[in-house]
Amino acid sequence: MEKLIIKGGTRLSGEVVISGAKNAAIAILPATLLIDGVCTIENLPNISDVQIQCKILEELGAKIDWITSNSARIDTTNILSYKAPLDMTSKFRASYYFIGSLLGRCHNAETGLPGGCKLGARPIDQHIKGFEALGATVDVANGKIVASANKLTGSSIYMDTVSVGATINVMLSAVLAEGTTTIDNAAKEPHIVDVANFLNTMGADIRGAGTDIIKVNGVKSLKGGATYSVVPDQIEAGTFMLAAIASKGDITIKNCISEHLDCLTAKILEMGGNVEESGDEIRVWCDKRPQKTNIKTAPYPGFPTDLQAQMGVVLSIAEGTSIISENIWESRFQYTYELNKMGANITAQGKTAFFEGVESLSGAPVCATDLRAGAALIIAGIIANGTTELYNLEHIDRGYENIEMKFRNLGANIVRIRE
Ligand code: UD1
To answer: Model pTM greater than 0.90?
Structure first.
């Protein structure tokens, strides 16, 4: 078992380079199955979710040559099976992208029921509705999802809820379908645009990604042959922006797209922090205790649920009482119980949490309850007085590349220990 030992009381300062976006990479990798050929993907984050997606691809017959630890040449010419290994696909959420991509490629798909962070009920009814609209039959039973279609035909789908995963998955299944598919009430997150850009670079015809309505004009095949670089990770950049505010520090975040973080920038300014944007860099600094604010999570361009816990750390030490309303996931306040062990004063009731700001946190043994909660607790450990021991690191390793090294380079006293 591994744990992080964080000696707190540090003001973070310096520069950090953001990796490729986890949520784009783990959709683009399954999307390579739609290509009858070779492509090169750069700026892949070196995280365990990417490694699992690559292993699943290899099991299906893809050949992957790593050029560097962040770029790979992927050959999907010979796909041998439409059955993605159940043990691997059951472990994490984004394995659902293998249903859309295998359906598109083989007209058949079989995966385990997706696992992932325990954030409450995580239905996939909108994915299934989209596949069925294109002509597939989908069965969910005995921990498996089995989909098949004689033929996929373009259709119009209205998403009952704005869903990142369903939007991408329907896009994947529609790329090689006959005719045009329209996805209405589509999600607009930067990684939706990135997956569409990847597929278009390989020969697809997808229009409107980043708006409410996406049109996918089916094409006969994707030839590949191109190189694509994954968009920078908006959530990782936001995590370091909030680490700067929480630690009353001064961090320059490099290789990021500031427009993707407009809602966070607005909140940081409201809390009394400073933000300076220049090209692909954002500098964030703060020299006083942050002020209270209220947050409501919402689909992009609203405040991302994936930055809710990191913001929760800032609000736990802000001046005054703040409220967070979590509108995407029903169980995303588990980290508040861990933060309370560190001296925070947070009351979570259903979708709402009340943060009575305290002057400071103090170190304690805590557990990463999910991926983003893990990042939040690292920030909490860095600003707390004393030593924090953080457990359940496998959650963090799923989505943050070299996280302790990046924080160490900013001055944090943090080491990983194997017990
Ligand atoms: C993705 C992200 C996750 C992020 C979330 C919201 C990946 C791999 N994960 O998750 O980090 O927290 O977006 O930004 O990209 N829903 C349904 N039916 C469905 C699908 C979703 O009711 O078929 C609901 C969910 O319960 C949730 C909401 O829609 O309340 C949003 O979920 P969705 O956008 O699909 O999240 P994921 O794609 O799983």
So the answer is: yes
Catalytic center residues = 117
Atom 30 (ligand 1) nearest CA: 328
Report the alpha-carbon distance of residue 361 to residue 384 in Å, rounded: 5
In DSSP terms, 284 is beta-bridged to 251, 275
Q: Which residues, 6+ apart, have CB-to-CB distance to 1 below 8 Å?
A: 391, 418, 419
**How many residues are given for the chain?**
419
For the chain, the first-to-last Cα distance in angstroms comes to: 5
Domain with CATH 3.65.10.10 in the chain: 2-19+232-418, 22-229
Give me the residue label for tokens 């979710």.
49
CA–CA separation, 285 and 262 (whole Å): 16
**Ligand 1 centre distance from Cα of residue 202 (Å):** 26
Query: What local confidence, expressed as pLDDT, does residue 224 receive?
Result: 87
The per-residue pLDDT for range 95-111, each reduced to its tens digit, is 999 999 999 999 999 99
Ligand 1 proximal residues by C-beta, below 6 Å = 23, 26, 93-94, 122-127, 161, 163-166, 187, 305-306, 328-329
Phi, psi at residue 76, to the nearest 5°? -110, 30
Q: What is the pLDDT of residues 238-277, one digit of tens each?
A: 999 999 999 999 999 999 999 999 999 999 999 999 999 9
Sheet holding 137-141, edge to edge: 108-112, 144-148, 137-141
* In contact, 40 and 73? CB cutoff 8 Å: yes
Q: What CATH number belongs to 22-229?
A: 3.65.10.10
Question: Are 76 and 62 within 8 A, CB to CB?
Answer: yes
CATH T-level topology, domain 2-19+232-418: UDP-n-acetylglucosamine1-carboxyvinyl-transferase; Chain (3.65.10)
3-state secondary structure of 21: coil
Q: Which residues contact 181 (CB under 8 A, 6 or more apart)?
A: 134, 154, 155, 156, 157, 170, 171, 174, 215, 216, 218
Residues with Cβ within 8 Å of 24's Cβ and at least 6 positions away in sequence, in order, are: 190, 191, 194, 195, 230, 231
